[in-house]
């Protein structure tokens, strides 16, 4: 399926350039619409027929589904392309952690606390989990409902995981108004689950392990009955069968994006937790395999993943991979250039230099903070490129550094005229000295050694 262009949109706009949308022209508005940076409702001159045409044109190949409400709301889906280099992916894969309803109360509460407290910062972004998947392991509808009630105060939305319509209804009576994700409808309980989804206005997962043709039939039946908030689970087969799982995920997404098959235009859900649920003997092996499957499915279009492990060593690689996947590959990740202060700086403090590539900056920041260094850090605008790349591309040179020194006001803050440049920038030391008039010291290649370098030299 070809990507919708600004010209495709422009052809259906009134082309009056009225400016009511806040843009200078209809073409400018069309560009914003095609890039998902504006809302069609801002166009006040569209008639109903044109609005519907444009709305259908702009709707993503994979429908966006809302899970949770208010401050717990999460959106999944919305993808337009198969390959990330074509366009950025928009709504991050949600990570939900399995929570059995048969745990002792203290263990149940402790697991909730653990799930909610898992977070860490990377390149200026706080990475954390997204949802709790309450599983009816007890097979007791009343116990399931009691557990659901305890989760009403959780800071995360809840997935209700049971194939029993009676248990699902009991839980929905308690928590249904929060748009919990229902998991799951199968060929055996489809109509009962469908009625509950309609009654409580909750998104419904269709579970058809290893059989996407049957999944299509189930989805068609749901759509025919007015249910359109659907999530697809084609099954997560582990071990040697993981290849079949990938085939089903890829085929489902291709049918949605390339063929616009209405029965596949929904978010995909995987359950890497099955590795642990099926075999709990070797925690390290299972945790490693769970993280591997989660990463693999995330790379192959999973919009939701249900996990079981909560060890940080397992979650860090998954969370950091997600962060990388959901940045725009066409735009370097950068921080604002200028002066940054660390520790107790004064007029005699050292001055460091680095680039505004986000990963470089936050690595340097972390090393300076952990080493309790007191220093000024000059951040050069290299349009988000790392030191070596910026040098090769011409963004990091003596003139650029001299312009930064002049504009940022560092010379008003320090008496010294000594600058520590990155080890990778050593070939530019003479050029920087000539352009800035400062003495240049070549620092370590690895920023973790900078605090000790400062202690030794200053």
Summarize the structure in words:
- With 458 residues, this protein is of the alpha/beta class.
- It folds into three domains: 6-58, 3-methyladenine DNA Glycosylase II, Chain A, domain 3 (Orthogonal Bundle), CATH 1.10.15; 65-325, Dihydropteroate synthase-like (TIM Barrel); 338-457, Rossmann fold (3-Layer(aba) Sandwich), CATH 3.40.50.
- It is 40% helix and 17% strand.
- It has 17 helices and 17 strands.
- The strands form four sheets. Strands 10-9-8-7-6-3-12-11 form an eight-stranded parallel β-sheet, with helices on one face. Strands 13-15-14-16-17 form a five-stranded mixed β-sheet, with helices on both faces.
- Helix 5 runs parallel beside helix 6, helix 6 runs parallel beside helix 7 (190-200) and helix 11 runs parallel beside helix 12.
- The radius of gyration is 27 Å and the shape is globular.
Based on the model shown, name its key terms.
single chain; 458 residues; alpha/beta; 3-methyladenine DNA Glycosylase II, Chain A, domain 3; TIM Barrel; Rossmann fold; eight-stranded parallel β-sheet; five-stranded mixed β-sheet; 17 helices; 17 strands; iron; iron ion binding; transferase
